[in-house]
Amino acid sequence: MKMYFTDNQSPDTGRRSSVISTLLKIRHDKKKEADIPMRAAYNKVQAKTNVQTKLECHFGVTPSRATPEQMYNAVAMAVQDILSVQRREWTEKQNRSKGKTAYYLCMEFLMGRSLKNHLFNLGVTEVFADCVKDFGFDLDDLFELEPDAGLGNGGLGRLAACFLDAAAGLRYPLYGYSIRYDYGIFRQKVVDGWQTELPDFWLPGGEVWLTPRPDEAVTVGFDGEIKDEWNGNRHSVSYSGQHVVTALPYDMMISGYKSGAVGVLRLWSARSPSFDIGLFNQGDYMHAIEESAMAEVISKVLYPSDNHIEGKSLRLRQQYFLVSASMQDIIRKHMERYGTLNNLTDKVAIHINETHPALCIPELMRILLDEHGYEWDAAWSIVTKTTAYTNHTVMHEALEVWPEDLFQRMLPRIYQIAHEINERLCKHLWIYYPGDWAKIASMAIISYGQIHMANLCIACCHTVNGVSTIHSNIIKTSLFADYARTFPEKFTNVTNGIAHRRWLAESNPQLAGLIRELIGNAYLTDAGQLSKLRAYADDPAVLERLAKIKRANKARMADYIKKAEGITVDPDSIFDVQVKRLHEYKRQLLNALHILHLYNRLKSDPQLDIPPQTFLFGAKAAPGYLMAKYIIRLICSIAKEVDSDPVISQKLKIVFLEDYRVTMAEALMPAAEISEQISLAGTEASGTGNMKLMINGAITIGTLDGANVEMHEAVGDENILIFGLHADEVDQLHARGYSPTAYYHNNADLRAALDRLNGGIGGIRHTEISNSLIGRGSGQADPYMVLADFASYCGIHEEALKRYADPAQWNRMSLLNIASAGIFSADRALTEYAQRIWNLEAMD
Ligand SMILES: *Cc1c(COP(=O)(O)O)cnc(C)c1O
Q1: Are residues 276 and 297 in the same domain?
Q2: Which of 36, 117, 457, 514 could bond 389 through an S-S bridge, CB–CB 3.0 to 4.6 Å?
Q3: Where does the record place the modification N6-(pyridoxal phosphate)lysine (predicted)?
């Protein structure tokens, strides 16, 4: 078996390999909780007074007459007040320190809910529970009134949210920047198996967490023409016919767990810069209104594609809007503090999370050149030492390119600068690769009429990182191999992490209670301490309690499903969970085919002795991604077919959960027993859902892909169920010429499952899917090698059932997964970014 992650992999469990020990070496300079001045203990009497005041001042009601919505808002406002005071102190401290600040730019932050998280971080959950109880309300019910802040698609946006939590908890001075979309990720409805999208109008309930800062609004210019041309290092620029949009900041405060720090996520909202008086004066009222509507469209809606570029001009407008507003903000703050930009590199770290905010590079150049009179080389030196870039995908359809003519028309000055960067880059590359035009073109920022955003980032940024060891290696050896050979020192890895307090302590309070009893609460600020749980791996009483907690969480999830979907599931069946965006590379289809295989087996042998299993799916498909929608429809029709069979429905249950989102994930992770992480090896950059499930004690069925590789390493071969082709085998198979039909002909089980697709399931023939797998359509058949991994996948499921039949063994595995999940804390990941990429210090 070939390993990808380390040179000195020990052949047995690999538990002490180099990667892990590097990760463990990162020190968490945590202050002891007692050292941190918690605001003089906040008690119930104060909480009640404050909530009552909010009710009276904002809603004109007494607590006894308040609606639940009013009570939720009043509690949220009272919490905002606590945070505001801490925020002011924290900001002052930061300003006094004159240390470095990091700015994390991302088009997505998938925040989920805030209230419960703030109460937990501030240590006042009990206080507020008692407070609202006295007013006749239940705090958990109030939590349910908060809409998710769904300003992201999936893993990328959730990672950004987890990093904000970690930074605040660790007292790192870090700001997030993004867009205040009026509509977040769409709400998903499934009607007769077909996904439909509804607008997510989250602001009425979510706006309580946003503070507008009109005093810090900036303007962003688009379109028009540049008056003066570029000439060498000297230039002067003026614009004509520009469209100007106002960027109005809304701040969302980010609490840190018992840290006293309060971070800020600044979200820009697009406004018309007051009606064009000129147009009004000409009597062109309608035109003036139209212009303002055009401006505001920019922050109207989040693009709902995950791992796929959306080459729409509005998307490019959004990107530049975010980047220009944020860079102006960063520069203004810096100038206020230091009065010069010469020290920008020492005081500012700018992070480009995925290429979407890559335009911050030419935008920063523009500000330095045009507004602060820097010469090119001095400006370039500042920009390159200040910016770093994280790549999140190797999928080709996700690599961002923009048509040169669109780019030039919309952003004429930024285009000039990008063009100049490209000229100088290509000259530089010529030294390395004289005459090799093909190579230089492939590394260029502008080539064949397209702007390549990843090349812009790699050419400029001082550091480029992937998000798991295998992914970072693929970046270096394949995706950006030429760049990695040219500038090897730029490339590194930081494996993703999750906010373990949210995903374990807050989502799974019973498990948190058990852990506290066994090893104390130090793991909350030092996730590595979870490893102390290993001492209980063979303690039958502990394992029994662990199983009871899982059972209780399953029962709670069953209630949730009953309420949300009207579907009954058996909490004594095995909960097998695959939740993530719907994508062919993530292979929900492999899971579905295996279920069809089980169905076939039960059809031919109704007495077959297998335990009852519930397969839970949750996944949004990009609205224009037809195959993804067909796969949702397939899952729903398998569910229907199975339900209609009185015998088989005793053994199998399939549920497609509508509208998978952060809040649903928080309920689901604690209830999962099997975690499906089954992407084709080499396609998933890291995954973070895998980590959330692991830390809640689910056993992973997974390929050696993304962070699964490091999970395997951390937990040991015997405690994870690995199957399928390895990344190098996938490459070899592609090179040999992959033929899915061979698998079809050679595997009777697979043939039977695929034949069902054509024969009709739940009244529908799924020929689009079967054609995509065995090549009766156009394009490469079965591009993600579902058929190649089918046999191996069925085998690992049999192994899982065998293990499940021995509860002691299963619970032991579960405990060891929890105990090994500490390195996947976002605290660890963020500390790596701070120390190895940003050179950023935590404040004392
Ligand atoms: C964690 C999370 C994801 C990412 O899941 P992966 O399995 O890593 O793709 C997506 N959506 C939501 C709502 C999440 O919480």
Answers
A1: yes
A2: 457
A3: 692
